[in-house]
Specification:
The complex is a heterodimer of chains A (552) and B (319). Chain A is α/β, with parallel strands linked by helices. Chain A contains 22 helices and 20 strands. The longest helix of chain A is centred in the last third of the chain and has 18 residues, at 455-472. Chain B has 319 residues and is mainly α. Chain B has a domain at 101-281: MetI-like fold, CATH 1.10.3720.10. Chain B is 77% helix and 0% strand. Chain B has helices at residues 2-32, 37-42, 48-58, 64-77, 91-126, 131-145, 148-162, 178-184, 186-211, 215-222, 227-256, 259-264, 270-279, 283-310, 313-316. Chain B is globular and about 85 Å long. The interface between A and B is medium-sized, with 32 and 21 residues.
Chain lengths: 552, 319
């Protein structure tokens, strides 16, 4: 804290209370949080979803999202009290002195306007710059943020630019009026690891260059360790603790913080392939696939999954991971090659598979929210596949549903008659697992099942999946982009890039060099809890090389 | 842009195909009705012999599918047959002037209604949940739920009887000036404006408000963009597709759904003609009018599709 002087305080929040409107009453979301930010300081706000990080970020701009209200406390920005300021006074600060960088740049750029027109909107409106000057300035910022073709890229529409580039363009937009403070609201959460590293480096550099203060909101500790001078941990709208980054990493005081730090400790022993001549339960052989009217998305993909084992398929978005799953389940018939189940060829299309073949390929999806019908009761969601595949009826069916709920550690008496929207994210994902188990499969495809969940909840799901594997002898194909998950549960790893398998083998070999260059890039891009990690990696790679991942 | 042309050409092809299917439906639906043109021409008192002779003459004893193709190819050349009512004019010249009248009235109403509806929709979206919004909501609901003939009579009562400033009957002699024409048809046009404005305005409001939860709208707000500019510059350009569709639907209604308004104001449009033709079993006219209505619907929906495509930046500016 010694780095910052008291006279340099830019933002001073005291006893902030925010309420949200839900079920016809106002409930407290933020319960008295203090926050002090100095000029040029970067404060990391971390916590799980529902901790109120984003809400505090918006409140720092005097902004309450629809359905929320600031009910108490003071927010003083550079001598201006935001809780009592008029709408137009607050509006005059937004964009000019306090700027915002949103989580999903793809959704936060207006699809109807060119990027540069959105960039110049604020400076032109505040009469800081003439339109053409603002465009010149935009190009300069694009160059500083290492966007390719800085002179031209702004004249594209948002959908014509990749996610990592858009996120950098949004950071440039936030800089357009040279604000005193930028709120970064999970700016890299939606990005692949190899892209994330570019954006992190770009953000850190530009914040440094202009000595801008920032609030960096994230749930990823390793990321915040790279960016922040100070870290504040939140839990359910209350502060847990605050300390400088080094201190927080080395010596967390509170139990909750320690549990966050330790969350990736779950590991299970690695299994190896059976040597007694057992056939692989699923064997993907030289599969090519394309979507109707599109280019080839899978090119000669082959791998085997043996009974009782977990094979992690890793790669960035667009690498073809989920397409392989669609080929195995028969949703997308491959254009060449075949899929074998216990040595027998599966018909390419799911409509021509028998009920017993269908039963073997069950899926659990990333977004439990959208994968469960919100208007159907839990017992029907689980009971339907049980009735369909096993022909159970009446009491037998009810018993089976109870059994399945017990398996996923949810009390049947409490959950039998409820609807999905009443459940938490982790509970919904458990229901998704029970639905897959209802078919009594030997093999389950888990498509990014933990990536939408908080770390503690995700760990619970991984433990559950591991227990079910031991008890029921299941084989998993685990699609993920999160290498930490791979480390904790995989037996074998398949690395994919551009629809091809670039490397595969047992996990322990995969995490030891030498690697395929892409595996290397992927592994070295995963942020580590060391505050100097980003600097070290960038030095190792050399500045010229870091644009690669995002320029695709 | 090449993709866009193919897309439009494809839609046009589908439109023509739909029209073909509709023409089959129209022809055979009319075919199902009891009686035929020969009977309609000759009336109740005709002897079976004379009816048979006329059938022979009109080609009505040919099988239905042959008559369908005759009719279809005739229609493509612009020959829709001959009216079954004396003086047996070609259907085209019976419908022609009437259809012009209907189009005139529709255009008159549309030119007022569309800009008013969209502007009001934008204003109401901006002032959502204020008194102005609620009042507008109640008024538009009232006008949507009142039948158009009722609205027509109310307008006549107010503007032709109590305060006689507009004529109650929208007769259109051939020799009047354009200004006079606008004056004479003001009340029916106003009735139509009231009916369609409400629908289009509510849709515009809904389409805009639907977008207000989007992250890019929040971004605009957090950039300090004033509220009116958030709506006009950031929400409206993304709301065009649903708005265009509801506009097209209402324009189609203005052409094909105005029968009651025409009857109330005794306006010589195609709707009245259709009612007449059905009651007098003038089958060639019924078929022709139905075909024209179908074509109008298909054409306007096609225009709406193309409009939605043109306002979508993803399709206008491919990667």
């Amino acid at each position: 804290m010694s780095k910052f002087r008291k006279s340099d305080v830019l933002l001073d929040i005291k006893d902030l209370q925010i309420q949200g409107y839900s079920n016809e009453t106002w409930i407290d979301i933020i319960k008295g949080v203090d926050l002090t930010l100095h000029r040029g300081e970067v404060l990391g706000l971390i916590g799980e979803s529902g901790a109120g990080k984003s809400t505090i970020g918006a409140a720092a701009m005097g902004y309450a999202r629809d359905g929320t209200r600031i009910s108490g406390g003071t927010i003083e920005f550079d001598g201006i009290e935001l809780t009592t300021a008029t709408q137009s006074e607050k509006r005059a600060l937004r964009g000019s002195r306090i700027a915002y960088v949103a989580q999903s740049a793809a959704a936060s750029f207006n699809p109807a306007h060119k990027i540069i027109d959105q960039h110049t909107e604020a400076p032109v409106q505040y009469r800081l710059r003439k339109r053409l000057e603002a465009q010149e300035d935009a190009m300069e910022l694009y160059e500083r943020l290492r966007l390719p073709n800085p002179k031209e890229i702004g004249f594209r529409y948002p959908h014509q630019v990749s996610g990592g580039q858009l996120q950098r363009a949004m950071t440039a937009m936030a800089m357009s009026c040279r604000p005193d403070l930028i709120i970064f609201d999970e700016p890299t959460t939606a990005l692949d690891v190899t892209t994330q590293i570019e954006v992190l480096a770009a953000i850190r550099d530009i914040v440094d260059q202009f000595n801008t203060a920032a609030i960096y909101i994230t749930h990823d500790l390793a990321v915040v360790a790279q960016m922040a001078d100070t870290i504040k941990v939140l839990l359910r709208g209350e502060e847990v603790e605050q300390a400088s980054t080094e201190e927080m990493l080395e010596n967390p005081q509170e139990d909750y913080t320690k549990s966050l730090w330790a969350v990736r400790s779950f590991k299970r022993p690695q299994k190896s392939r059976p040597t007694d001549g057992t056939l692989p339960i699923i064997s993907v052989k030289n599969v090519d696939a394309a979507y109707p009217g599109g280019d080839k998305v899978l090119d000669d993909v082959s791998f085997d999954i043996y009974p009782g084992m977990t094979v992690a398929v890793v790669g960035e978005s667009g690498s073809g991971k989920s397409t392989v799953a669609r080929c195995i389940t028969g949703l997308l018939p491959p254009s060449a090659g075949e899929v074998l189940y216990n040595g027998d060829v599966l018909p390419p299309k799911y409509t021509s598979r028998t009920r017993d073949q269908l039963r073997q390929a069950q899926m659990i999806y990333q977004m439990a929210d959208t994968a469960l019908n919100p208007k159907v009761k839990i017992h029907e969601i689980i009971g339907r596949p049980a009735a369909f595949y096993s022909g159970l009826k009446g009491t037998a069916l009810k018993q089976r549903v109870d059994e399945l709920l017990d398996l996923i550690e949810l009390d049947p008496a409490l959950f039998y008659n409820r609807y999905p929207p009443e459940l938490s994210g982790g509970q919904k994902q458990r229901i998704g697992i029970a639905r897959a188990l209802a078919a009594e499969p030997d093999f389950i495809i888990c498509d990014e099942v933990t990536s939408a969940l908080d770390q503690l909840v995700a760990e619970g799901i991984l433990k559950l999946l591991d227990r079910l594997q031991k008890e029921l002898g299941l084989a998993y194909m685990f699609i993920t982009h999160d290498l930490a998950t791979v480390r904790s549960i995989a037996d074998e790893v398949v690395v994919m890039q551009y629809g091809k398998v670039v490397e595969q083998g047992p996990k322990d070999e995969m995490f030891k060099p030498p690697h395929h260059p892409y595996t290397d890039l992927l592994l070295s891009s995963v942020p580590e809890m060391d505050p100097n990690w980003l600097t070290t990696v960038l030095e190792e790679r050399g500045v010229d090389n870091i644009g690669e991942g995002a320029d695709v | 842009m090449g993709d866009l042309l193919t897309l439009v050409a494809k839609r046009l092809g589908y439109g023509l195909l739909t029209l073909l299917v509709v023409s089959i439906l129209i022809f055979f639906a009319v075919e199902l009705l009891p009686g035929d043109t020969a009977q309609a021409i000759l009336g109740q008192s005709a002897t079976p012999d004379t009816v048979a002779a006329l059938r022979e003459e009109l080609g009505l004893n040919q099988p239905a599918y042959i008559r369908y193709f005759d009719w279809l190819f005739g229609a493509i050349r612009g020959d829709l047959g001959v009216s079954a009512i004396p003086p047996h004019q070609p259907v085209i010249s019976v419908i022609g002037p009437r259809f012009t009248h209907t189009l005139f009235l529709a255009a008159y109403a549309a030119v007022i209604a569309v800009p008013v509806a969209i502007s009001l929709g934008v204003i109401v979206a901006l002032l959502r949940n204020t008194v102005f919004d609620r009042v507008a909501n109640v008024l538009t609901l009232t006008s949507i739920s009142s039948p158009e003939f009722f609205l027509g009579y109310i307008l006549i009562l107010i503007f032709a009887v109590k305060i006689p400033i507009f004529p109650a009957l929208a007769t259109v002699p051939t020799d009047v000036s354009f200004g006079e024409l606008l004056y004479r048809t003001f009340l029916p046009a106003l009735t139509l404006v009231l009916v369609v404005t409400a629908h289009m305005m509510r849709m515009t409001r809904a389409a805009i408000i639907n977008l207000l939860a989007s992250p890019y709208i929040e971004m605009a707000r957090l950039k300090g963009v004033p509220p009116w500019k958030v709506i006009v510059k950031h929400a409206l350009p993304n709301a065009w597709a649903p708005i265009i569709n509801v506009v097209a639907l209402n324009l189609a209604y203005l052409v094909t759904g105005v029968v009651l308004v025409e009857v109330v104001f005794v306006y010589p449009g195609v709707g009245q003609l259709l009612v007449d033709a059905v009651s007098k079993r003038n089958f060639p006219v019924v078929q022709a009018v139905s075909l024209i209505f179908a074509a109008t619907f298909i054409l306007l929906n096609l225009a709406a599709d193309v409009g939605s495509i043109l306002t979508n930046p993803r399709l206008r500016h491919p990667k």
